[in-house]
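Might you be able to review the protein record set out just below?
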Amino acid sequence: MDRRAFLATSSLAAGGALIGRASAQPAAAESAQPANILLSMKGGMCKAGKTLEEKFSVLKKLGYDGIELDSPGGQNKKEAIAAAKKTGLPIHGVVDSIHWKTTLSDPSAEVREKGLQGLLTAIRESHQVGGTSVLIVPGVAKGKVSHQEAWDRSIAELRKALPLASQLGIHILIENVWNNMFYDPKGGENQTAELLVKYIDEVNSPWVGSYFDIGNHQKFGKPADWIRSLGKRIVKLDVKDWGKKNGFCKIGEGDVDWADVRKALVEINYNGWATAEVKGGDEARCAEILANMKKHVLGA
């Protein structure tokens, strides 16, 4: 089944974890309140507690719905599984921990193979911990690697991972980052998601979608418009903010138009995970991050 046929019969939005939303949708951006969004943070952000069980317990107590780990390597997966069971805080996926240095777009076939093996490990470990996805930066276009080369090489490698992803039911999700792919770093602040849409559609698999980072491309385009363009291709969200005066900053202190973001999420009927990717800290900081996400992502 190709990606388009799959989307006609199944929602990618939460990997099967969530269903529906009320049909009534507010017209005004200010009143838009997305429903069925689960709030999470990256595992390395929580500095409270010494053990994984203590960290999971803190996040559960604060009201987080889940957590995301790193792979290959990263947190001890057996310990994480035990912590999740003990505290009731689920692990919803993993972030590919080697995708920046061992890229799927590298000129060396040997390096690309190492990157592929890292992705396959991440897929297996996401499944092992009960997750539904692997976040990956598919390539980097710089130096001797052109945009087209990064595009072609990374798609070729991603396709090699699709059989395992399909077998285990794990989504491979493309994060929009400052990797010189899918945007022009010198192209101004009104760029669209056209290239990212085209890339995902070219892979043409129900197991490949967008892990849309709300703040990452604020410098180059309007996040709400990217959300509208990507639509059902978005499976999960990263949450951060960016501003012309303060760069990457606390959620709500940058230039992201959160009211329009919420409206766009309602328009595409988004249901799924929203994971903070900002500067972490102690329990008080983790509580602040959650409060910021509730206010700006949920409109609560």
